[in-house]
Amino acid sequence: MDYIGRKKFCCKYPGCNNWYYSNTSTDFVNKHFFKFPRGDRQEAWKNACKIDFPINPSSWRICEDHFRDADFVNQRKERLNFNAVPISLVNEGVSQVESSSFSYEINGTSHSAICICHQPSSSLIKCPLHFSDLQDSAISNEVIEYSAFDNFILDHNYCGNPQNNQFVNIFYEHDYCGAMTDYDLDKDSQDHNNITSLHNEIPVNLNKFDFLTENSNKSGILSKIGLSVKELTPRKAKMYEINRNLKSKMCKLTKLLEKERDKVKTLQTLCDSGKFKFIDEHLNSVNKDFINSQIRNSSQKPHARRWTDQDKAFALALYKKSPRVYKFLQIHFQLPSSRTLKGLLSNIQFETGVNPGILRHLKNQVAKMKAPDRFCSLLFDEISLSGGFHYEKVKQYISGYEDLGSLGRTNRAANHALVFMVRGVRRQWKQVIAYYFTSHTVSAENLRFLIIEIILQLQEVGLTVVATVCDQGPTNGAAVNQLCGKNPYYFYVNKYRIVTIYDVPHLLKITRNALLKCKIEFAPHKCAKFEHIKNVFDFDQRKTFKSLPKLKEEHFNFADSYVKMKVKVAAAQLSSSMASAIETYIALEVLEPEAIFTAEFVHKIDTLFDSLNSSSSQVCDHKIFKSALHKGSPHLTFWSELLEELGHWKLIHLTKKTDVTNRYYFVDGWQTIMIIWFLFCKNIEKQKLLNNNTYISDL
Prior knowledge:
One of its GO terms (molecular function) is DNA binding. The protein is α+β, with helices and mostly antiparallel strands. Helix content is 38%, strand content 15%. Strands 8-15-14-9-16-18-17 form a seven-stranded mixed β-sheet. A three-stranded mixed β-sheet has the order 5-6-7, with no helix packed on it. The longest helix is centred in the middle third of the chain and has 39 residues, at 234-272. It starts with 5 loop residues before the first strand and ends with a helix.
């Protein structure tokens, strides 16, 4: 035998030697092979193939030689009908159509029967006419009686209705007839009930479309109607695709519904057991939402977690308090990612000027506050930005130009942002209220207008603005002078007096920066120089145990503008530790004796900074001035003494040796703050509130 190809699988019908070849090198054409079905039909195939031992034949195949032509969907024999069962047509040497006919006598009358089933008389699957007793003329009155019908034509595929009163053609489908063993019919019946009884005994399906409602493993609509995808028209194929998509969606939704029902049952069981009663009675809404978010997302992957708006708002509040703490909490709790929170913020549209949404929120919060808690201060400052232009798709305009809100926009490129913030005086709360884009700096006239505009809107929501806080920038100083007029310390808006305060940390930085270029004569024949501070630091670096551990070499690199702007560096250079180190090195004769004046100046500035920048009512670090103003504290005495000295301070340029006192305004800034505190204390005495230590400390 010539080589055909590699054998892949064979026909499993008993006695059949047909193989399916792969990689054929000739014109050989393989027969069509069909896998064993599943479920009940598999048992029918196993019986037809005489397989009586337990085995799973799902991967076995039967070739096309063991099926009738009527079992195929088309003439190419590529697909079987749903109820096709293999039969032995090749090995038993019978034709695909075998008919039997014989005559028999019933009640003395001669009758004839014709069988056109496709089974040989020796087949295991028989129709009624293939019983041996029928062909031996053994059909008698004891088996079956018919009086109104003369001719029976039995076939496998169809069952017809009577066509006339004398002849009835009844077609029995092969797959439902099976191997008949007994018919128990009433031999005395001679009317149409005999046929009805026969139909009840044999499971004949009179409706050829009933298979659509049958339960089978193949639930596809094409399998039920016996069609393939290749036989569908374009329109039917589109409808079939829509049907499949809808079924897939329904299946997914059904499974999701079952899961949700299981969750509801579990939660209902827990609720009925009373385990949630503690949560309802003792926890607030924030705690409940947080617990629900943890339960909902504990078993989900990071990308599958879902968050409500309340969850995101709570997480955003935590993130704004401290990003580092938020990252630590993410290790132990299920929290939204920082990217999610930033995306939430980007969806909130903020226009330049006062934000109406924030005002509405403030109004709701102010309504819950007590009268003393409504006192607040207005802070404003400018920050540097990188210039650039961006097209806003939603707003339909180009951002990046100077924008002063109600004052309009200009054609100048913005490189700074002017920000206004409201902060509580007695109660610690703060909120950004407005922002503007400026080019380098805003004019003093426009700044004065914006300050009054914002204060009026804050008064409308119920807040009482008692002070403005800013640095000593030239624009800020000019705007404050325009607001105050003849009185340099306060101004009025709607008959409410508002004092002007300069930022204390900023004053400390300006004082240190003045020492870099000038020597300060703070008393007759007493001058403070920064070179003494630098020399002490250099000597201290040579020691193993340093007196100034907070200072580093890079803190004296003033070419870096970032170092000059850090309050922490200025506070360390003008601290009590620095004054003590200078005095120590003078005693060791490392420094010249005149450096003691620098130590005295540094100690005064450190004490002044502590007295004006402390908020705690308790004394810190054993420094009596490092506490808030309270009854019996030495603050007022120290301020009154220092006010007299500040008026005589002089600044002498180091290289030019000229008096440059008028070029620096930090002395006026220190004086303004102390004078305002004196005015404030007088008002408290008039209102007899001086005994309220807590209120004064919070202020």
